[in-house]
Write a structure and sequence with these properties.
By secondary structure, this protein is α+β, with helices and mostly antiparallel strands. Strands 1, 2, 3, 4, 5, 6 and 7 form a seven-stranded mixed beta sheet that branches. Strands 9-8-12-11-10 form a five-stranded antiparallel beta sheet, with helices on both faces. Strand 5 (110-117) and strand 6 (123-131) form a beta hairpin.
Length: 712
């Protein structure tokens, strides 16, 4: 052991260390009769808590939680932030409040976390304890004992720091082990159990075999030197099954006996009974009766199914982080959970708090007329779906008969024989129920404690995803309303002019940006057209776009549509507003009697023209972007617009592509526009935007405005 490691662990004559913290933790465990626990220490170099002491369970079982963020949703962080004890009586309660933690440890156990708080706001960390589920809430005497343990831990940490040897967080927790048993008493005990007809093994807290009787070695068909010191499932290939290891994990966490049956090749069925204790697990091994043969295949299949369920749930949890809308969430849940848990049907309902009714979000597998009865059902009626949605309490029913025995007057039930097993999982977010997930099975379904915990924690994950998605939908609707309110409601009809316009929001962000266009009749058979692009893709860009569009409309009326003057005055106004955003703009005036166009640009892409004689990019003098310098003049250019030719005004999102030269893209657009001259302008607009509209990750908005001179 290195000097630094020894100092951190603590020993006689040295500053306090991790071993001293572990001894205090053991006092707390004994005071409340809990069987496992650990200590988290705050990392001074990062906003994390590091599990630095562990006892009662192996590191492998809690490896995902070695380091946790101080801003995360965990019992330890909540205990520190709220400066009080966090107590969870069962795995079900853990699944409701901390679904991410429960999804990795879906067992039935009590969990207690106590903060380590120093003077002022200093937080040294927290210690946690694992006990048997539904143990009583700590009494006043037990709470005083916990507070005393926490005080002594804080004193040890303070003393170590004052002596110049602070106890630092470790990459992996220091495991506090029990002293080995006396050799003579161990030998006497081994001789006694060897006389039993059953085999007996002892596993330490890490799952390794510390003792095996001769009868156990005979039943397992292995040698002592191969088995001792190893995990059984790592040396015996026929025990390498996720469901068998899962039974061991369940015994360790819940501190309750578990059992499974396995086939030792070629044809010997063995029953394994696991009895957990403070220092490890005792395993009783016995040959089974012949009737196990017909049952075991289904047991193994169910074991693999449980592993498959966990895989599907974890996959869903990962996918839910990417779901943006409520529709995305409901589709993911329906597509992943139904096959994942072997169910036949699933439906998601939200609880409308204002109307006190359930509202269907999405479903798979149920008959439409059945879910239609529940959709809109008052939450006051006595039924399992409304109970789960209102109280946050789950309901699991093996058969329809069992369901009807609890709810004999339930107002809805599908046709006989369609659904037998039922699960009603509450959707709980931020500590309050917001809906219910209803799952149906064709056959009677036994819900194990583990499966109930997994499904309950799943409800928490889905609820959190729905809350995020609902907020996103609200923001998106607000953004779209703002965008549509700032764009022209309709383009006026102008005799002799065919017009088409398209606006495509970027697919990333809030579906809102700063692109705009407009057509302004000037009288005397003249019109003005404008298109612009404000820098950015957010609410600020949209707000500035609205101001700029209003300014252009006002100056167009005042200056009779003089392109250069309109841009000059609009630029001066934007500079006065100091928006810290810039905008490109193109303004033109078209005289339909003469077919002449007068145009000015402010950093905007050149328009293109296409007709029977081909297409070309209109090379026009450019000016500075709007909003940079107040005293800028914008030069004008005049050119003819022949009949049956199409003039395309657009924003750069239509042509800009990674690795594509901008001038080449403009030439391509001009030739494409000329090739479509026989089509109506609405069809031309569809053709020009069809390729870019299907791009999955398009960050920029696209505006397209087409003008074609066509005399009546």
């Amino acid at each position: 052991m290195s000097e630094s490691t020894a100092r951190n662990e603590g020993s006689v004559g040295r500053a306090p260390g991790l071993r001293d913290l572990g001894e205090e933790l053991l006092r707390a465990l004994h005071a409340l009769d809990y069987h496992a626990g650990g200590v988290y220490l705050s990392d001074p170099e990062s906003p994390t808590l590091a599990m630095s002491v562990l006892t009662g369970i192996t590191r492998d079982l809690v490896r995902p939680w070695f380091r946790i963020s101080t801003t995360g949703n965990t019992p330890a962080t909540d205990a520190i932030h709220e400066r009080k004890m966090v107590w969870l009586p069962s795995g079900e309660e853990m699944a409701k409040r901390y679904p991410r933690l429960a999804i990795v440890m879906p067992y039935d156990y009590a969990f207690l976390t106590y903060p380590l708080l120093g003077e002022g706001d200093e937080a040294h960390g927290a210690f946690f304890m694992i006990g048997t589920s539904y143990q009583h809430f700590p009494s006043s005497a037990e709470r005083r004992a916990l507070a005393e343990v926490a005080r002594r831990m804080v004193d040890l940490l303070r003393q170590a720091r004052e002596e110049g040897h602070p106890v630092l967080p470790t990459p992996a927790p220091f495991v506090l082990r029990s002293p080995p048993p006396d050799e003579r008493s161990a030998a006497s005990l081994s001789a006694a159990v060897d006389r039993l007809p059953e085999g007996l093994c002892s596993l330490d807290s890490g799952g390794r075999v510390t003792m095996a009787t001769d009868r156990a070695l005979e039943l397992l068909s292995t040698k002592r030197e191969r088995l001792i010191g190893s995990r059984p499932w790592s040396v015996l290939s026929w025990l390498d099954n996720p469901s068998y290891e899962d039974r061991y994990r369940a015994a360790v966490f819940s501190h309750r006996s578990t059992e499974f049956v396995a086939l030792r090749p070629p044809n010997q069925w063995l029953s394994f009974r696991l009895h957990p204790g403070q220092e490890g697990v005792s395993v009783l091994i016995t040959p089974t009766e012949a009737e196990w043969r017909s049952e075991e295949p289904s047991r193994e299949e169910s074991g693999h199914a449980r592993a498959g369920v966990l895989y599907h749930i974890l996959h869903l949890a990962s996918a839910l982080t990417e779901a943006a809308t409520v529709s995305d969430v409901t589709d993911l849940v329906a597509e992943e959970i139904v096959p994942g848990v072997g169910a036949h049907a699933l439906a998601l309902f939200e609880h409308n708090q204002e109307r006190h009714r359930l509202r269907l979000l999405g479903q798979r597998g149920f008959k439409p007329d059945f879910v239609a009865v529940i959709d809109g059902a008052p939450t006051e009626i006595r039924a399992p779906a409304t109970r789960a949605a209102v109280t946050g309490l789950p309901g699991f029913f093996r058969t329809k008969k069992e369901l009807l025995s609890v709810y004999p007057d339930m107002p809805y039930l599908p046709n006989p024989g369609e659904i037998e097993g039922w699960a009603f999982v509450p959707l709980v977010a931020s500590g309050r129920p917001i809906g219910v997930c209803m799952i149906g099975f064709r056959q009677p379904h036994n819900f194990t404690v583990q499966e109930r915990t997994v499904l309950t924690s799943l409800g928490g994950l889905v609820a959190q995803a729905l809350e995020r998605a609902r907020l996103y939908d609200i923001k998106r609707d607000l953004a779209r309303g703002l965008q549509s309110g700032m764009l022209p409601r309709r383009i006026p009809d102008v005799p002799g002019l065919s017009i088409a316009q398209r606006y495509l929001s970027g697919t990333e962000g809030m579906d809102i940006g700063g692109d705009f266009y407009d057509l302004i009749p000037l009288g005397s058979n003249r019109v003005a057209a404008v298109i612009g692009d404000v820098q950015g893709h957010n609410v600020g860009a949209a707000a500035l776009m609205g101001q700029l569009r209003t300014a252009v409309l006002a100056y167009t009326a005042m200056l009779e549509g003089s392109p250069g003057d309109v841009l000059t005055q609009s630029n001066r106004l934007l500079c006065m507003l100091e928006p810290e955003l810039f905008a490109s703009c193109l303004f033109l005036r078209l005289d339909l009697d003469t077919g002449m166009v007068r145009m000015a640009r402010a950093g905007h892409p050149e328009p293109v023209m296409g007709g029977p004689d081909g297409g070309r990019v209109l090379d026009a003098p450019d000016g500075l972007l709007l909003g940079i310098e107040p005293d800028v003049k914008y030069p004008e250019i005049e050119f003819p617009m022949p009949e049956d030719s199409t003039l395309a005004l657009y924003t750069d999102g239509l042509i800009e592509r990674p690795g594509v030269d901008l001038e080449e893209a403009q030439e391509t657009l001009a030739h494409r526009l000329a090739s479509l001259h026989d089509m109506a302008v609405e069809q031309v607009a569809d053709e020009l935007t069809s390729a870019v509209s299907s791009v999955p990750h398009r960050s920029d908005d696209i505006a397209l405005f087409l003008l074609r001179a066509q005399p009546d």
